[in-house]
Amino acid sequence: MQKINKNVVLALLSLTSLVFLLFQLYYYKFYLSQKNGAVFPKLRGRQSGQDSTRWHVVRKFLGLISSHNIPVYLIDPLILGLVDKDIERIRGSSDGPSPECKYFCAPRDFTTFALLDKTWKHEVGLFRTAEKMGFQWLKIINKDPRLDGMDDLSGVEIPLHYIFKLASHAIHLVVFYERSGNYLWHGPLRLKQHMDRKFVSFRKLHFGRYPGAYEKPELLLVSIDDLKVQIPKNPSSFLEEMSHSRFLECRYREARAFFQLYPDDASLDAVEFRKKAKSLLHLAALTLNNLGVKFWLSSGTCLGWYRQCNVIPHSKDVDLGVFIRDYKADIIPAFQKAGLPLKHKFGKVEDSLELSFQGEGDVKLDIFFFYEEDDHIWNGGTQAKSGKKFKYLFPKFTLCWTEFVEVRVHVPCETLQYIEANYGPDWKVPVKTWDWKSSPSNVQYNGVWPVDEWDDVIQIY
Amino acid sequence: MDEWKPNPAIKPHKKRSWYLAWKYKLMNQRALRKLCQTGAVLFLLVTVIVNIKLILDTRRAAYEEEEESAQDYDDEMLNVEVPRHPVSNKKVLDVEVYSSRSKVYVAVDGTTVLEDEAREQGRGIHVIVLNQATGHVMAKRVFDTYSPHEDEAMVLFLNMVARGRILIFTIKDEGSFHLKDTAKNVLKSLGSQVAPFLSWRDMWTFVGKKGGEVYGEKHAKSPALSTWGDPVLLKTEVHLTSVEDAECHWPDTELNRRRKRFCSKVEGYGSVCSCKDPTPIEFNPDPLKDNKVFDVPVAVIAGNRPNYLYRMLRSLLSAQGVNPQMITVFIDGYYEEPMDVVELFGLSGIQHTPISIKNARVSQHYKASLTATFNLFPDAKFAVVLEEDLDISVDFFSFLSQSIHLLEEDESLYCISAWNDQGYEHTAEDPSLLYRVETMPGLGWVLRKSLYKDELEPKWPTPEKLWDWDMWMRMPEQRKGRECIIPDISRSYHFGIVGLNMNGYFHEAYFKKHKFNTVPNVQLKNVESLRKDAYETEIHRLLGEAEVLDHSKNPCEDSFVPDTEGRVYVMFIRMEQEADFTTWTQLAKCLHIWDLDVRGNHKGLWRLFRKKNHFLVVGVPASPYSSKKPSLVTPIYMEPPAKEEGAVAVPAVAAAEQT
């Protein structure tokens, strides 16, 4: 009897724990599905009800917006992704009712729209109407970056994000601002202390973790799920743009401190050089962007941006970096067409490629090509007279947008590591004499080009 | 769990028999049974461990999520909430007022709200206005009633203060010399017993409520002409009223909310805060048809002259075709009151941390403002630049809208300005007439973005160069021979008297009699002929039809120009080379127009009106128009008066003052 009891108890215990285990697994999966939205859609239950809620909220929001003549456009990555698959059909479709709710009913917590700041007046009436319609709303304001600069200006904080919540769905309205450099900027979403952290789950928003920079999109008015809405004309390129839209502001405060220590060179020569370097950079950006070649500020130009938000007047050239995978043979003819003749070409596509173009009045444009390895990235240098090769090593980096001398350009997001690799820990101290073969702290001797290749890898014009 | 539980209940028999069979089998195989038991125990252990791990994972994930969101979405700058002063329910304010020869101060509830012991400054009557409900300082003024006309300004100010406000007066040094009876009577009507008898170098303090009780007054008579009265210190208590009593009951609209905020903070703006029938703060002027400057940003450059700014913005917002969304007011310094004015009108204001001193500070402020303007409106090709001490003509934007395309198309243009330096009451006549001039007048002008970005901004004078921005812009290195378009009758009016470069005399002499257009919708008549080459044709045509005046007469005399109307006359003056303005300066002086430096010329030609006739002055032989001079006419030469010591410096200094 005792033994039986023991067995029974054991078996019961095992069963209980098994059940408990199953329950835990179920709970965990449920938690995961909440986190990732669509991963376990079947666990969400009451699907149709929830779906139509989303559609209704979007419809109400669009009604609210159009009643105040505020032009918004859809930038929701999830919906745009779905739309992109059927883009041809959607573009061509007439106004006939659509059979099913395919896009706006897709499971998600938010629908994201964009608003161009200059196209609306900041009316209070909108919010009053929104409240009457049952929306709860939240406005996120912050400093106006367009006032950031070498001058210490402070203005009224500007709205960066709005969130309109109705029932279980929320609309995230991202405010885009035009900035000099012909691009659109949206701000980061940062909650101030008194704000309701639980208003929505901010973490799930697609915009706002970082500020972002975008091209001005061409818009298209379409009818999706019987709702008329503006979308970017080319959703896939918008989504691609979105994936690396992160924007870095120049560090004006540090730059001001730098100029306190090392007063700016205001000589006529410096003014002239800056002017030339600026127009050269504008021309280079235009040329490379037209070719679709992604580039970033490198070496001295990058240091100038990071340290003083300006061109370093005693540098002699403008330096750009390009990944070798983005290399195009058209680059040289395109620059020549833009009025920048090739000055020299070192290396070859397979190894240490570097191009130099002659800008106006002695200012040179250097394009260094970067080669990616498993754990680092490098570019090469060649000494013309000796055929010696050098290698400059950088830690891996990703690219961010920034604004420099009124043009939108890329810089390494991990700028500090990039600069420290190149210039060492004392990059904050201006150095006037600089030897590209020995001064950089990341330079390595990389052998000599074989003499029979010299004609190819050392071309000077 | 729910699904599983019912199972044993539904089929108990089957389970039972299956269990029994299994039990008997096990009874027979002891070893196997032992194994099963151990297995079960092990399984139990494993599930317990897995369970614990799951719980931990879930908790950690949840925690990370919170952590993450907190890190990413919290404002970096921890908003250190400034502990607000607890709203004191105190109904009584302690007020201390001190008056003496070299120092005045006012303390309210122990907080010093005025302290002035600077030497040779702040002479006269200091006035402070307190809100009768909160005790906040709403206005602070000093009227140097030792000097003429300041008492009138004080009367004007006191009349504007709303009834019920608390007024505090104190004299520093001397405040009675030009304190006329009108002013004394106003002070008397406020309840002062001493004011009518205030005399030379008396010390005096007074606290009272406008239109109500007197809280205290102290006075010390000066015993002799050469000495001052003894310092006086008045300590008194002021009873606060309730907030409702201190506020007006305007209908609750967006506009009135702005008004309320403004009126509870500051004083001295007159009827805008009047409870009955307040003056409007929104003007809705007629829109312009085909407005070419609707999207042009307007930068208003301001300092700490909020009353001026108020007057300026009123006229700006009343101008036809104004677009308030494009207006930005740039305030040089962290002054509250100008910002209050900006907010009253619902405009956007930006404050600028001052850099450098004096004129260089103004110059740096200009640069920062212009840079920010083009940053805020990256699409803009132009910016309108205004200053806080200008009245803006009702057709200001109409004038710009009709002429701005020239600035876009004609490379030889430097700016369009609303101001004619030589456009006085007696020398300007035709609101539809425009000129090209080689000097940059400023005072309401349009700047081309490319000019600013490509040329001016990179080499703008640095703070250590104590330069005037406008003098710098007029230098040949910057102007490069380009010209500005100006109207005959100015579209702006410079009313500023107090300023860095201003004083009453100077204003009276050079600005007060300036003509200002008040006619709406003026159709400009010769816009296309202002292009570079067309203008020359136009000038030659004008000179061709002009009647040559009698050069034997004195050009300063009124009779020099015949008593006609609508004719064109020309006179020739001596001008040896391009920079020889000897005769012109003398002529300008006797015509009572701008003579401090040379303004308004175009290739040695000046155009103005005399007795309603167009009056041209050509400098011979430097001007290319000299060829139009009949050979018999001798150009007039006027000698400068014998130079006095130091007289040379005057024009140079004064010229800098036009800003």
TrEMBL record, chain A:
Keywords: Membrane, Transmembrane, Transmembrane helix
Annotated protein name in UniProt: Ribitol-5-phosphate transferase
Family: Belongs to the LicD transferase family.
GO cellular component: Golgi membrane
Residue stretches spanning the membrane: 7-28
Limits of the Ribitol-5-phosphate transferase FKTN N-terminal domain: 1-278
Localization of this protein: Membrane
UniProt GO BP: glycoprotein metabolic process
Keyword DNA damage applies: no
Lipid bilayer topology: Single-pass membrane protein
Gene this protein is translated from: Fktn
Domain annotation LicD/FKTN/FKRP nucleotidyltransferase: ranges: 292-329
UniProt entry tagged with the keyword Membrane: yes
TrEMBL record, chain B:
Any one of the GO CC terms: Golgi membrane
Residue span(s) of domain ILEI/PANDER: 123-212
Keywords (A to Z) from UniProt: Disulfide bond, Glycosyltransferase, Golgi apparatus, Lectin, Manganese, Membrane, Metal-binding, Phosphoprotein, Signal-anchor, Transferase, Transmembrane, Transmembrane helix
GO MF annotations, alphabetized: beta-1,3-galactosyl-O-glycosyl-glycoprotein beta-1,3-N-acetylglucosaminyltransferase activity; carbohydrate binding; manganese ion binding
Localization of this protein: Golgi apparatus membrane
Principal location: Golgi
Known cofactor(s): Mn(2+)
Pathway terms, separated by semicolons: Protein modification; protein glycosylation
Reaction(s) this enzyme catalyzes, per UniProt: 3-O-(alpha-D-mannosyl)-L-threonyl-[protein] + UDP-N-acetyl-alpha-D-glucosamine = 3-O-(N-acetyl-beta-D-glucosaminyl-(1->2)-alpha-D-mannosyl)-L-threonyl-[protein] + UDP + H(+)
Record CDD domains: GT13_GLCNAC-TI (cd02514), PANDER_GnT-1_2_like (cd13937)
Membrane-topology annotation of the record: Single-pass type II membrane protein
Top-rank taxon, per record: Eukaryota
Cofactor binding mode and count: The manganese ion interacts primarily with the substrate UDP-N-acetylglucosamine.
Function in brief: Participates in O-mannosyl glycosylation by catalyzing the addition of N-acetylglucosamine to O-linked mannose on glycoproteins. Catalyzes the synthesis of the GlcNAc(beta1-2)Man(alpha1-)O-Ser/Thr moiety on alpha-dystroglycan and other O-mannosylated proteins, providing the necessary basis for the addition of further carbohydrate moieties. Is specific for alpha linked terminal mannose.
Subunit structure: Interacts with DAG1 (via O-linked mannose moiety). Interacts (via transmembrane domain) with FKTN; the interaction is direct and is required for normal location in Golgi membranes.
Domain comment as written in the entry: The stem domain mediates specific interaction with beta-linked N-acetylglucosamine moieties of O-glycosylated proteins. It also interacts with its product, N-acetyl-beta-D-glucosaminyl-(1->2)-O-alpha-D-mannosylprotein.
Name of the featured protein: Protein O-linked-mannose beta-1,2-N-acetylglucosaminyltransferase
Classification lineage: Eukaryota, Metazoa, Chordata, Craniata, Vertebrata
